[in-house]
Amino acid sequence: MSGTYLGMPAFPKAAHEAVHDATLRGNLRHATHTIRAKRAKAVAEVSDWDALREAGKRIKDHTLRHLDRYLVQLEASVTAAGGTVHWAADADEANRIVADLVRATGESEVVKVKSMTTQEIGLNEALEAEGIRAYETDLAELIVQLGRDRPSHILVPAIHRNRGEIRDIFRKEMSEWGRPAPEGLTDTPAELAEAARLHLREKFLRAKVGISGANFMVAETGTLVVVESEGNGRMCLTLPETLISVVGIEKILPTWQDLEVFLQTLPRSSTAERMNPYTTMWTGTTDGDGPSTFHLVLLDNGRTDTLADEVGRQALRCIRCSACLNVCPVYERAGGHAYGSVYPGPIGAILSPQLRGVTSEIDASLPYASSLCGACYEVCPVAIDIPEVLVHLRERVVEGGQVTSNGNKVVLKPAKGHAAERAAMRAARWAFSRPGALRAGQRLVSRSRRLHPRSLPGPGKAWSGTRDLPAVPKEPFRDWWQRTNGGMDGKGAAK
Amino acid sequence: MRVALFLTCVNDTLYPDTGRAVVKLLTRLGVEVDFPMAQTCCGQAHYNTGYRHEAEPLARHFSDVFGEYEAIVTPSGSCGAMVRELYPRMGERARAEGRGNSLATTLAPVVPKTYELTEFLVDVLGVTDVGAYYPHKVTYHPTCHGLRGLGLGDRPRRLLQAVKGLELAELPGAEECCGFGGTFALKNSDVSAAMGADKVRNAASTGAEVLCAADNSCLMHIGGTMARLSTGMRPVHIAEILASTEEEPAV
Ligand code: SF4
């Protein structure tokens, strides 16, 4: 499994294969449509949903605006509660801190709670390189790990797999990692879950070190919160002697009371549940209860740079509910892997190019991986205007301009490969600024219409490979309008 | 009442029938329609592809051409949303870039008086029965920028339901994007085509002869896909259905 996605092809190329993979299309269509409908129902039950959404947005904006203050407050409260806080500027630093902490315990294996942040920094691979084995314990992450695969969804990382594929992976791979799959395992959900339970139980009982992320961190109390559905997360958060949590700095909430908003909006948006099944909260360490050593690694990794951008910073409000993925028609057809990041779908398309910059081929292509239909914005529980940010990032790709990189203001050059488009846009702007030029162009199109082919060669195939071209009328509207005096000369009116 | 028709560059060039239908319909309802000849393009394609600065002169031009009119009516949900939603944003961005208020002030007058056609009919004229006749089975696709950008809601459906002879068929997955998305259709043509094909399959499953929408750009994509998949269905702009009468029926 590669967590880094280096050298991924641009989105359209990666999507090409997914679109034509019938099994994948079927798996994704079924899964996203089911959860989409459930979410809509769960949200419709809440009479003050709009107010909750607005409150979530405001709390997050306020926190981000005063992040400097809340981070220091959080560090003080975690420390006072018996935890140790570490600061990591980037993925390498975070990985090094975690590896050192694990090594200091003398252990060579860890159990993991499902965590996007540790995926983002490629922690498992980094630990592997240090001779430390990390076991994923979330059912879907386990499927991904056993299948040497990459996650394709924030919440359901194995959404691209169906039950038959999962059974095959379990049968083939479980024995390499620990307890093998039971003889004669079928693809019924209960049997698959039981196989995973037996396989994981052994790891929970043995592990001395647990690694997690967190959904929220409360600055005033120093409390961390993990929200999950299986209970496997709770096993990792309570059984080991040492707990290491790697959390992005944007996950802070100022007060305990702020949780009341997100504990309502997150479950309904992500799993369509009214209340979350397992909500684990811990504050530092407590004698005789849970891990006796607790480390919090606060991760920046591009977040401060993102915060510097007025339009793009709203992406940091994200609570990773994945509602935007489930509703996205592009995600449904392209699949999560095409986004070349642990953050797929609409949120990935605005987050990756900000956290990683727009210099790689895949990152520069992500802002275009959208028809701007706006379905993501409509469902987002913290009202991130994803289309607005996508267009803003398109501008960054084609125009370049000032961005913040590692805390420094730098001026970005326009990306390569947009020269022809830029010239066409300029020419169109020129013509559209001069009605006479537009008219001359329209007439040329109309008068040559008999010569127009129904399909186009070269780059025009992008359209006409699957769609007929529209028939060109014999005259543009403005000529008709002038010729018939706005249709008033009796004849040509509105035919 | 005298209004300016902002037909849009796409309709002007490729869909003059839609323009004629709007003129016929509004004239029938007692509205005086003017077509300012200096109009060109609202700048949407530029803006949405990342060329905001190229879109600015087009927005200024739009404001020059239409600023004096009482109301501006356009048969395009996405161009309507461009003016109403994105012109104010362009003004804000220019201000944030330290270029003062000039753009915001220039664009401000056209923003509140630009209406998408069905909005104008229902909200300004207060009609849902426009006296139309169209004896066909029709299914309606709400285009994204009309639905989620302008919030057209059920206005188009109410107008269609009042058309004599028209049988309205429910479109499965109506609110899902058809996959056009402007330059998206070219830059991500595989995904765009797959979305278009699904939309067309859903439309065909209704047994309707006509797929109706309030935006010809989306209809160009859907119609092109229908032709390629030989469904026998045809795309028709809502203006053409509403303009159709027993005396002068549209096909
Ligand atoms: S962007 Fe919004 S909808 Fe998407 S995962 Fe984040 S919070 Fe959820």
From TrEMBL, chain A:
<dbReference type="InterPro" id="IPR004452">
    <property type="entry name" value="LutB/LldF"/>
</dbReference>
<keyword id="KW-0479">Metal-binding</keyword>
<keyword id="KW-0004">4Fe-4S</keyword>
<feature type="region of interest" description="Disordered">
    <location>
        <begin position="448"/>
        <end position="495"/>
    </location>
</feature>
<protein>
    <submittedName>
        <fullName>Iron-sulfur cluster-binding protein</fullName>
    </submittedName>
</protein>
<dbReference type="GO" id="GO:0006089">
    <property type="term" value="P:lactate metabolic process"/>
</dbReference>
<dbReference type="InterPro" id="IPR003741">
    <property type="entry name" value="LUD_dom"/>
</dbReference>
<dbReference type="InterPro" id="IPR037171">
    <property type="entry name" value="NagB/RpiA_transferase-like"/>
</dbReference>
<keyword id="KW-0677">Repeat</keyword>
<dbReference type="Pfam" id="PF13183">
    <property type="entry name" value="Fer4_8"/>
</dbReference>
<feature type="domain" description="Lactate utilization protein B C-terminal">
    <location>
        <begin position="393"/>
        <end position="484"/>
    </location>
</feature>
<keyword id="KW-0408">Iron</keyword>
<dbReference type="InterPro" id="IPR024569">
    <property type="entry name" value="LutB_C"/>
</dbReference>
<dbReference type="GO" id="GO:0046872">
    <property type="term" value="F:metal ion binding"/>
</dbReference>
<dbReference type="InterPro" id="IPR024185">
    <property type="entry name" value="FTHF_cligase-like_sf"/>
</dbReference>
<keyword id="KW-0249">Electron transport</keyword>
<feature type="domain" description="4Fe-4S ferredoxin-type">
    <location>
        <begin position="315"/>
        <end position="384"/>
    </location>
</feature>
<keyword id="KW-0411">Iron-sulfur</keyword>
<keyword id="KW-0813">Transport</keyword>
<dbReference type="Pfam" id="PF02589">
    <property type="entry name" value="LUD_dom"/>
</dbReference>
<dbReference type="Pfam" id="PF11870">
    <property type="entry name" value="LutB_C"/>
</dbReference>
<dbReference type="InterPro" id="IPR017900">
    <property type="entry name" value="4Fe4S_Fe_S_CS"/>
</dbReference>
From TrEMBL, chain B:
<dbReference type="Pfam" id="PF02754">
    <property type="entry name" value="CCG"/>
</dbReference>
<dbReference type="GO" id="GO:0005829">
    <property type="term" value="C:cytosol"/>
</dbReference>
<feature type="domain" description="Cysteine-rich">
    <location>
        <begin position="3"/>
        <end position="83"/>
    </location>
</feature>
<dbReference type="InterPro" id="IPR004017">
    <property type="entry name" value="Cys_rich_dom"/>
</dbReference>
<feature type="domain" description="Cysteine-rich">
    <location>
        <begin position="138"/>
        <end position="222"/>
    </location>
</feature>
<dbReference type="GO" id="GO:0016491">
    <property type="term" value="F:oxidoreductase activity"/>
</dbReference>
<protein>
    <submittedName>
        <fullName>(Fe-S)-binding protein</fullName>
    </submittedName>
</protein>
